[in-house]
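We emphasize that the prediction below concerns an isolated chain of 309 residues; any contacts that depend on oligomerization or on bound cofactors are therefore not represented. The input was used exactly as deposited, without trimming of termini.
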Amino acid sequence: MLNKPSPIQLIEDELLTKRSIRLFVKRDDLIHPQISGNKWRKLKYNLQVAKQQQQQRLLTFGGAYSNHIAATAAAGNMFGFETIGVIRGELVKPLNPTLNLAQQQGMKFVFVGRKEYREEKAEIAARLQDELGSCYVIPEGGSNTLAVKGCAEIVAEVQEQLDNVPDYFCVSSGTGGTAAGLVVGLAGVSLVKVFPALKGNFILDEIHSLIWEFVGESYDNWQLISDYNFGGYTKWNQELIDFINDFYKKIRLQIDPIYTGKLFYGVWNEIEKGNFKENSTIVVIHTGGLQGILGFNQRFGDLLKNVET
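Result of the prediction step, given as a token string:
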């Protein structure tokens, strides 16, 4: 049912050979077809606590193309929870591929205007629980201390699979939970390079807060690499699209245009610039999100040629 531990894959490429770098991809995208990547790790302990509290339904938040929304719906279906998704924006029919997938998994939607969504999540959750009954509330993107606990387990898996500690971990970031988990799991060893998908450095505070809430201390063995967001969360250009398509042709690895595409583009550029030590080992975390490719192509015209059926 769940492919755990997720496999680790050695990547061969001329650039890596040129720089004397060993690069592995931690294939969390293969954990489960619908609950893939960091979404399973973030949900794992939240689902356990919801069961312990004898909750019957999960309530969470996300945009209309959210990986977290799709994964929560699938997890709820698998583990016997009703699921409620509070969706940013107005209802648009027909549903996009992400929301259609979530609906097929049994999720019910509440569509909320963007201003209200930004300002009043706690109030929205309280109102819906008054209407529907008690819910286990999971934050947008799934990032809380239980998510950090789940993502920290990546480190032990990688160490066992490689029989050593790599020099670098590289990961994309939206809400900071996966990055915080890696930092906590390493406890000061190695360097975590975080490639945010959103514009701006506000995620620094989010990651710091999640680390502090979980372990009550700070670590300095991580850094934000903010040069590869392409202008923001859903922004892209033809250079990124060409990279994703070429990457799939060369390496046969699917990556998406929101998170992992920008991550791998950034890693390859940083290697080319010499920002990783020669003779070092890098582990890139594939956080899934591949369901978003269909929605992207629907919106922008079949630009991505890495769709696997």
